[in-house]
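Duplicate of earlier report; HAD family hydrolase input re-posted below.
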Amino acid sequence: MYQCCIFDLDGTIINTIHSLAYSISLTMEHFGYGPIDEDHTKKFVGDGFKKLVERALIYSGDDNLSHYEEALAFYEDTFEKNCLYKVEPYEGMKELLTFLKGKGIKIGVLTNKGHERAVECVEAVYGKGFFDLITGEGNGVKTKPDPSGAFMTAEYLHAKPSECLYFGDTNTDMRTGINAGMDTAAVTWGFRDRSELEAFHPRYIINHPSEIKYVFE
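Output:
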């Protein structure tokens, strides 16, 4: 029986695509490039903001990343101002989380979003103290798929990796769970398609948060 559930943030518990696409588009436009649409943003995110900026610049034609350092700083400032732009929980997610809490399951967030923005975003949508732990990039935590953040979360929540179920919507999340020795639950409502997730043979593939409840009943 699982004692702990660890959730990715973007594309898993919160739909943040509008804020991400808006912020990276403003960044690209600042350097004379066109906006990045949401479909491309979904492909560029998942590995931290530095990779997002890098991928967006290359897509926009800056193959030598001549604007990279400036763009990183501009994006950080822009995203700080706009990280809550049109964010919303996915249908059924709050009900699932409340259900898990009622079963005594610890719940944590592990994301490659910067830690301060992650806390701000999660608390804006779910309220302060709703999750037992929120961990974002920074403060010595390596970006996923490095498993150290997953191990740290499990230890903090007094669970063994084998007692944790890791939820995510990208290949990065699936690899994180595998690297940490945790069962994975792939969610299809996020930023990547089902085939990307199936390639990693997750323990569960769900199309709606309610579909996983039976595991805990």
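The first helix runs from residue 17 to 30.

Merging into the original ticket.
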